[in-house]
């Protein structure tokens, strides 16, 4: 991957996970869920390898991967969509804002996204996709990580934590009283 003088690297990031996996696992039962999850992991890892992607982190049913070139990430994502659908997992493709579709902003504002990873690019115009995505996240009070290093640190910390986590709808967190 291209490197900058600071030691940082330029990368295209692909993040994916199975939305509502807790419910899906509950409906399927442990054995069927483990089998589906194993096939899901194999599909994703196969596509990452085929397109030169690097698996940065894996947690349960979520992947964070990087690519040296955007085209490789796009091809991997397209292949993953096709393969994951063949496993019977519902897939939602979210087009770029620049393609005239505001689905990503609607997902962020609806509370469907638990967090957003979006790194700023050069330029300060407010009509760029990244600016609009970060603004929607801030307005919807959705955590927005603007650095790949930070996103990896968060995932690493969650994986390393011995604390058990429970999953609740985001709306429950928003309606909880603030404790100072």
What is the gist of this entry?
This protein is α+β, with helices and mostly antiparallel strands.
Describe the protein in words:
By secondary structure, the chain is of the alpha+beta class. The chain folds into two domains: 93 residues, Alpha-Beta Plaits, CATH 3.30.70; 72 residues, Rossmann fold (3-Layer(aba) Sandwich). 47% of the residues lie in helices and 12% in strands. It has seven helices and five strands; from the N terminus they run βααββααβαβαα. A three-stranded antiparallel sheet has the order 1-3-2, sandwiched between helices. It has a two-stranded parallel ribbon with strand order 4-5. Helix 5 links the parallel strand 4 and strand 5. Helix 1 packs across helix 2, helix 2 packs antiparallel against helix 3 and helix 4 runs parallel beside helix 5. It starts with 11 loop residues before the first strand and ends in a 5-residue tail after the last helix.
Helix content percent band:
40-55%
- The CATH architecture of the largest domain comes to 2-Layer Sandwich
CATH superfamily of the largest domain: Nucleotide cyclase, GGDEF domain
Order of SSEs, N→C? EHHEEHHEHEHH
N-to-C span: 44 Å
How can the largest sheet be summarized? 3 strands, antiparallel
> By helix and strand content, what is the structural category?
alpha+beta
The CATH class of the largest domain turns out to be Alpha Beta
| Beta-strand percentage range | 5-15%
- Look at the structure and give the mean pLDDT: 79
> Any idea what the shape is?
globular
Number of domains: 2
| Unreliable parts | none
CATH topology of the largest domain: Alpha-Beta Plaits
Number of helices: 7
Per DSSP E runs of 2 or more residues, the count of β-strands stands at 5
- Strand order, biggest sheet? 1-3-2
Over all CA atoms, what is the radius of gyration? Answer: 17 Å
């Amino acid at each position: 991957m291209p490197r900058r003088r600071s030691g940082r690297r330029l990368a295209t990031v692909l993040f994916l996970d199975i939305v509502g996996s807790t419910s899906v696992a509950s409906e399927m039962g442990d054995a069927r869920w483990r089998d589906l999850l194993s096939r899901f992991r194999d599909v994703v890892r196969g596509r990452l390898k085929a397109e030169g992607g690097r698996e940065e982190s894996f947690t349960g049913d979520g992947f964070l991967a990087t690519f040296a070139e955007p085209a490789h990430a796009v091809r991997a994502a397209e292949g993953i969509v096709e393969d994951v659908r063949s496993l019977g997992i519902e897939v939602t493709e979210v087009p770029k804002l620049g393609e005239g579709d505001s689905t990503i902003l609607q997902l962020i504002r609806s509370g469907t996204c638990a967090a957003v990873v979006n790194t700023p690019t050069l330029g300060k115009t407010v009509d760029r996709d990244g600016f609009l995505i970060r603004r929607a996240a801030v307005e919807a009070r959705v955590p927005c990580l603007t650095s790949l290093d930070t996103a990896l640190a968060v995932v690493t910390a969650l994986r390393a934590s011995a604390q058990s986590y429970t999953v609740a709808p985001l709306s429950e967190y928003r309606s909880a009283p603030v404790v100072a």
